[in-house]
Design a protein that fits this description.
This protein is mostly helical and 103 residues long. It contains four helices and two strands; from the N terminus they run H-E-E-H-H-H. It starts with a helix and ends in a 16-residue tail after the last helix.
């Protein structure tokens, strides 16, 4: 699923770079910004033998610092899961029909 999600983010960054990919609180990130951050962290993760999953999460938190300010690890993990579901809502792999936005 993560490879499909990363490919979708890359594609959307090319087609609609200024479109907001996701919003959380006062933070908003476009597809271009998110793609650029994932790519930058991807280089770092590759050098250290880490996955593109790690690059995605690092890039997302870099672009949306409000996510790092969630104190409860359980709540932070829940919000991150909702963000992944939101971004992958059109990929067909999850049940995101109910999800309208991440709050």
């Amino acid at each position: 699923m993560m490879n499909e999600l990363l490919d979708d983010i890359r594609r959307r960054a090319e087609i609609t770079p200024r479109l907001a990919a996701v919003r959380f609180g006062d933070d908003a990130v476009t597809y271009a910004e998110l793609n650029d951050a994932i790519a930058a962290y991807g280089d770092v993760m590759d050098r250290h033998g880490m996955s593109q999953d790690a690059a995605f999460h690092a890039g997302l938190i870099n672009c949306m610092p409000g996510l790092a300010r969630i104190e409860s690890a359980t709540e932070r993990n829940q919000v991150m899961s909702e963000v992944v579901a939101w971004l992958g809502r059109e990929l067909g792999g999850g049940d995101s029909r109910r999800l309208r936005a991440v709050s």
